[in-house]
Amino acid sequence: MPESPNSPGQRAWSRFRRHRLALPSAIALALLLLVVVLAPILLHLAAGSQIALRFDPERLSDAQFQPPSAAHWFGTDVHGRDLFARVLFGAGVSLLVGLVGAGVSLVIGVVWGAVAGYAGGRLDALMMRFVDVLYSLPSIILVIVLITTLEGLLKSTLEKIHAPWLNDSARLLFLFVGLGSVSWLNMARIVRGQVLSLRSRAFVDASRAMGAGPIHILSRHIIPNTLGVVIVYVTLTIPAIILYESFLSYLGLGVQPPMASWGSLIAEGADQINPIRTYWWLVACPGTILVATLLAFNCLGDGLRDAWDVRSK
Predict the structure, then answer these.
(1) Better-predicted residue by pLDDT, 10 or 214
(2) Which of 248, 238, 197, 172 is nearest to 33 (CA)?
(3) Residue 120 lies in a domain
């Protein structure tokens, strides 16, 4: 049955459309995701053609350090590779890290905050003190320690069984674990606050009086009523995690060549800056795309926040 014009969903959509930057940002991000998904498929289908050679991110050439031009829209790097192609394919890695990290934040944060808020008492105090302890640690230092520790443990294990050293998939997994370990803390606090205000509502008392258990009440009544706030915060978590990944890649702890992400491309470009000549496009092009994407996610989050704000008209 379609929603009435005055339903909460219709009012939220109306407020979202009136936001000046939210809807254009959502369209731009949807187009970016579509291009990121289709680019490898189209490149595979056009294998051997001039188009495939033109947009191959790993194709080496003699045209090193070419500035942006009609032939190379973002210029070329130290190995003569087309920077536009590398930025395009690097977007897939950066967005994957952001989306997976936000997914980890969503799952852990919602479950932790919902259980703590609904249980209350000593369990709530114990769970939230654990969150406070993690809050007291510098998040980026914690991520770096976790990644280096996991790499060290895996390296020693692989050396004992005479197996090959780390591959790109393992490094990405370490990024997911490290970033996911710190990204859920704010989500847990936000969900806990929502649950504390919902657990004494009449519909929760009615469900409890009918014999429903805590898991049923949380999954069917309380958590669904927190989704508005959760969705807003997820859109703000994605750019934060992408920024973390970019910083870690810049430090050499994230994505490693030949795989590329926006952070690793900026790091590679920064290595080529010298007093004699500055190849500005190696940093400016991936940096501009990174900043524009982060800004679009933040505008989307602002629009969703205003859309789900019941005080908005």
Answers:
(1) 214
(2) 238
(3) yes
- Quote the distance between the C-alpha of residue 63 and its chain's center: 34
Neighbours of 77 (CB within 10 A): 24
**Contact of 59 with 53, CB cutoff 8 Å:** yes
Domain CATH code at residue 252: 1.10.3720.10
Domain of 264 in residue numbering reads as 8-308
List, in order, residues 6 or more apart from 300 with CB less than 8 Å away. Answer: 22, 25, 26, 29, 235
Evaluate whether residue 313 is within a structural domain.
no
How far apart, in Å, do the first and last CA atoms of the chain sit? Answer: 25
The answer as to whether 2 is a domain residue is no
For residue 85, being part of any structural domain is answered with yes
pLDDT per residue as tens digits for the range 206-264: 888 888 888 888 888 888 888 778 888 888 888 888 888 888 877 777 777 677 888 88
Residue 219, Cβ neighbours under 10 Å: how many? 12
What are the φ and ψ backbone dihedral angles of 80, each rounded to 5 degrees? 80, 15
Residue 14 has which token pair?
Answer: 């109306």
Q: Which residues pair with 82 in a beta bridge?
A: 76
SS3 12: helix
Sign of CA dihedral 104, 106, 107, 108: positive
- Which 8-state DSSP code applies to residue 1? -
Per DSSP, the residues of 131-189 read HHHHHHS-HHHHHHHHHHHHHHHHHHHHHHTT-----HHHHHHHHHHHHHHHHTHHHHH
Q: Largest alpha-carbon pair distance within the chain?
A: 77
Q: For the chain, what is the domain count?
A: 1
